[in-house]
Design brief:
heterodimer; A: about 120 residues; mainly alpha; flat; B: about 425 residues; about 0% strand
């Protein structure tokens, strides 16, 4: 008899609706994460493709240099110029200095107070 | 030897009779002088009646024993000591007769009676305000977020489904509680035990059925401690030896950008879909953003350690304080404890069964043992999956795979709490 007094329609509605909502919300998150993953992998691929282009361009330049028989002195001058350029770049620093604070636990062995003679 | 004992007895007797006669003389003198009568025995009786011993009932004695048992479990057996110990001590304090540390009438009918606070509130009443106003669970959620790595979940988003399936325990328990004649709001609070998430259970119970907070919190934390006992038989029962030996693909590495964007996106999406869950999800994700962004290291450390620990102390003591003899020693508590264990079992089974279902359609097989980690007892449930996996195949490491559904369970239980709050609150 007690079972009949329970409002089964409300109870089942809460259970079915509630659990479905949990599934829907978390499934939407799954889909979102999968889309997100796709977008990231596409951007990653583009980045890789761009870097490959640079590499291939570099290879072409090497071939060009070989083809034109660049003199050793010219190569040395280019190297020196690049060296000086990057050396200057190195000097430009952020000027931000961070001090990492190191926390030392108190211990009577490291306490200053025992090493100081009291002034009377 | 005998003569000495006789001598001692005679001395004691004479001293006692002398005291009595002296007392009679004093009382007669006072009576003669017309002032108020004072007797040593009366004042002794009065003093004794003022002590807690005189107000002791069998209920308070039982509650003190229960608190001592919980302390034993926390200290000796190591069952969730971080929360069980403060809860047990809060239980001890609130059941000390006459101490007046906690007055449940200040929070009667689900409201805070601020006017009565001035009349004389105890220490635990003030601490309980943090629970009542829903502050402590949210702070703990910030701490949990700061301690959680969602990397395994991002590497395998399917884990979220396992976390969702494990919430089936909450709704099945809701039906069971309704069958035991609880109101829908009370049944919702009891059902959330199945989420295996203490702060969520406390948060929802304070909103829906504050008078059941004590038994529900004790049940939730006790069963969370018993996850290594409750889950393995269910896992073995629902899986075959072959399934337990499934080796999963190694998880991909997750970039920092993904980890930073995840808490922001989840907060926006979940809060828009379910505004009632915004508090819990927002706090969880705030903590996680602090961790992953790497720009607020100090804040991240604080919420993970100091803030979390302080709040845990206050939460534990004040939740324990609600377990007064009248609120705890009744048939409802026994039903809550029995239904709570069903909730845990159902949640574990839900995750395992969904993992098996996914395996029917998926190319990359999932070891169903990680499904049980969908209940959000972090990281205990994941450890249980790892241990059971190692028993089947000593070279199969499931811990990182199980952490995915485990952290998904935290999100799942917070979402389930939001749904129950919006439907029953």
């Amino acid at each position: 008899m007690e079972l009949l007094t329970i409002n089964w329609s409300d109870t089942l509605a809460i259970v079915v609706l509630g659990f479905t909502m949990v599934l829907v919300i978390l499934t939407s998150l799954v889909l979102l994460l999968l889309i997100f993953d796709k977008i990231l992998s596409i951007t990653e691929k583009r980045k890789n493709a761009a870097s490959q282009k640079i590499v291939s361009a570099k290879v072409n330049t090497d071939n060009l240099l070989q083809a034109e028989h660049v003199l050793e002195q010219e190569l040395a001058a280019i190297s020196a110029a690049i060296f000086l350029y990057f050396d200057e770049v190195h000097d430009k620093e952020s000027n931000v200095i961070r001090i990492k604070r190191i926390e030392r636990r108190y211990s009577p062995w490291s306490s200053k107070i025992y090493g100081v003679s009291p002034l009377k | 030897m005998k003569t000495r004992i006789y001598l001692l007895l005679i001395i004691l007797f004479s001293a006692f009779s002398l005291t009595l006669s002296a007392q009679e003389n004093i009382t007669s003198d006072i009576a003669n002088s017309g002032s108020q009568q004072i007797s040593v025995i009366d004042s002794f009786i009065e003093f004794m009646s003022g002590t807690g011993f005189a107000s002791m009932t069998w209920k308070t004695i039982v509650m003190l024993i229960v608190s001592l048992v919980l302390m034993f479990l926390a200290i000796v057996k190591g069952f969730e000591p971080l929360l069980l110990l403060p809860i047990a001590f809060g239980m001890l304090l609130t059941n000390l007769p006459g101490a007046g540390l906690f007055n449940s009438e200040l929070f009667a009918e689900g409201h805070v009676h601020w006017d009565k606070f001035a009349e004389g509130a105890g220490l635990l009443d003030y601490l309980y305000l943090g629970v009542k106003l829903g502050i402590y669970p949210c702070i703990i959620f910030i701490g949990i977020g700061a301690m959680t790595d969602f990397g395994p979940l991002l590497a395998n988003p399917k884990s979220l489904l396992l976390g969702a399936a494990a919430q089936v325990g909450i709704f099945m328990t809701y039906v069971a509680a309704v069958l035991f004649d609880f109101t829908p709001a009370e049944a919702g609070s009891i059902g959330i035990i199945g989420g295996a998430d203490g702060p969520t259970a406390i948060f929802l119970t304070t909103k829906l059925a504050p008078h059941l907070l004590g038994p529900i919190a004790v049940a939730a934390y006790s069963y969370m401690a018993l996850v290594p006992v409750i889950q393995p038989p269910i896992m073995k029962l629902l899986t075959t030896e072959k399934e337990r030996k499934i080796r999963m693909q190694q998880l991909r590495s997750v970039s920092k950008t993904e980890k930073i964007l995840f808490p922001i996106i989840v907060t926006i999406i979940v809060s828009l879909l379910l505004p009632a869950a915004a508090t819990l999800i927002g706090c969880l994700m705030l903590g996680n953003l602090m961790r992953e962004s790497g720009v607020v290291e100090r804040l991240s450390k604080t919420v993970q350690n100091e803030l979390m620990n302080i709040t845990t102390i206050f939460l534990g003591i004040s939740v324990g304080a609600t377990t007064t003899a009248d609120a705890f020693l009744n048939g409802q508590t026994i039903v809550i404890l029995c239904v709570g264990i069903i909730a845990f079992g159902m949640g574990s089974a839900g995750g395992v069964l969904l993992a098996k279902l996914i395996n029917l359609f998926s190319k990359n097989k999932i070891n169903p043992l990680i499904g049980s980690a969908g209940v959000s007892a972090v990281p205990m449930a994941a450890r249980v999956s790892q241990t059971e996996g190692l028993k089947a195949d000593p070279k199969n490491f499931l811990l990182m795979h199980a952490m995915g559904p485990n952290v998904a369970g935290v999100i799942g239980s917070a979402v389930a709490a939001g749904i129950l709050l919006s439907m029953l609150g």
